Each structure stands twice: as C-alpha cells, then as structure tokens.
Amino acid sequence: MPSDPSSPEPSSPEPSSPEPSSSGAPIWEVPQAVLFDMDGTLVDTEGFWWQAATSVARTLGVELGPADTLNVLGRAAEDVAALLLSTAEPHAAALPDIARQLIDAFAARIAEQPGGVPLIPGALDLLGELHAEGIPTALVSASPRSIVHLVLPRLDHHFALIVTADDTTRGKPHPDPYLKATTQLGVDPRRCVAIEDSPTGIAAATAAGCHVMAIDTGRGLPSLHSLRVFKP
Fold first, then answer.
1. Percent residues over pLDDT 70 in the chain
2. Which of 4, 23, 204, 226 is a Cys-bridge partner for 172, taking CB atoms 3.0 to 4.6 Å apart?
C-alpha cells in the first residue's frame, strides 16, 4: 500500500566501520537479507523503459538523448514525467496523465515479449541459491506494482517483501525504498546486500546504509559465495 504522506519518512542510519577480528582483519558474514532492484538487475527491461520514455516524450515535443539517461533509467514514472514537463510544449498534459502514459507504454512493451522479458544472466541461479539457504530476499523497484506483477511470473521466486514506487513518498535515489524494506524485514541495513545496476539505485541503497553490489548487466549476477557483508 502507498505510504501515508503525512507520516515522517525514516532517516538513513549512519554506517559503521567493520569490526576487526583478533588478527586485525575485518569480519565478513553472510547477509541477513539480499535486496534486489528489478529492471536492469534481474530482468533486462531498461531498454523497454527508455523506449517508452522516448515515445511519450515525442508526443510532448521533447527529444531525449544520452544526457538524459541518468534522469530516466532507474527513476519512477512521476520523476520522468516531471522531467518531460520541464521542457514540453505549452499546454501539455498534467503530470499524472504523463506518468500513466509512461507506465502504459512500458507495460505494452513488456507484454509484447513472446517468451516473457529477458532475464539478466545468473538471476535465477542466485535466487535459487538464496532460497536454498533460507536467506530472505526483497524486491525494491522503482517501477509501480502493476509492472512488477507483470514481471514476477518470469522470476518464479517468492520474495519475502516487495517494495515498489507506489509504496514510498520519495523514490530512488532517496534511501526511503531500501529503508522501508529493511524495516519491514526487521534487519539491519548494514548487514544486507543491495544489488543494483543504475547510479540512481546505487545512490539509494548506499544512502540507506546497505552494502551495495553494482552489477554489469552484460556480465550478469554473482553467485551467493560473493555476497558477504562486514559484521558491524
């Protein structure tokens, strides 16, 4: 459910330095939970989001280019709608209408994929390893819940928690989505791994105090063995 805008948003915890062992080396441990971005991290859908954004932009007389990727990829529909409105022709539609057009255009492209959206290499393997080890997982996405529900069947995984763009007043790059996830899971952000692919998502997870693993979409996701955090 969307959060109550009147309720104060949680503040980001101060990260702590790793505690050294008796030998002076930091102590590493298995994470309490692993928090996943979705688009570009588990499924290769960021190209579809860019196509949706550029097509809606053109209807408003706006041409998006490479310089706009940071403000489009990894951002919520409302943020991209605000970007388009800032340079749109006069008498453009209202922000909620443009956000809905973006979401609808994105959903249409996802629905067009005959075998479902393409997966990032290693996504199902890592999710399977986490399930086998009983490590909780959360999906923390800048997409709305309607888009997440379109993608979930492709992942075939039970997430302990799903946080979408509908669930916090402020989205990525603010820490709120990750803080909401760790609070509801009852875990320490500093003892969690957040897996992200975009600067926007990396900034959000870092601000929340998580141990962040940035992936290269082309190279895919790591194995469970690579997911370790410093013991606070």
1. 87
2. 204
Each residue's pLDDT tens digit, 27-75: 778 899 999 999 999 999 999 999 999 999 999 999 999 999 989 998 9
Task: Look up tokens 């888009």; give the residue.
Answer: 147
Give the distance, in angstroms, between the CA of residue 130 and the centroid of all CA atoms in the same chain.
Answer: 18
Residue with tokens 């939970």: 33
What is the Cα–Cα distance from 112 to 55, expressed in whole angstroms? 16
Cβ atoms of 81 and 102 within 8 Å: the answer is yes
Q: The tokens 């005959």 sit on which residue?
A: 114
What order of strands is seen across the sheet that includes strand 137-140?
Answer: 161-163, 137-140, 33-36, 192-196, 211-214
> Do 119 and 217 touch, CB atoms closer than 8 A?
no
First to last CA, the chain: 32
Mark 79-104 as b/e (b = at least 16 C-beta within 10 Å): bbbebbbeebeeebbeeeebbbbbbe
Non-local CB neighbours of 126 within 8 Å, separated by 6+ positions: 221, 222, 223, 224
Nearest C-alpha neighbor of 11 from the set 161, 175, 184, 163: 175
Instruction: Tell me which DSSP letter residue 198 carries.
Output: S
The ranges assigned to domains in the chain are 28-45+117-230, 46-111
Please check whether the domain covering 28-45+117-230 is classified as CATH 2.40.160.20.
no
Between CA 72 and CA 142 the distance in angstroms is 11
Amino acid at the residue 121? P
138: which strand partners?
35, 161
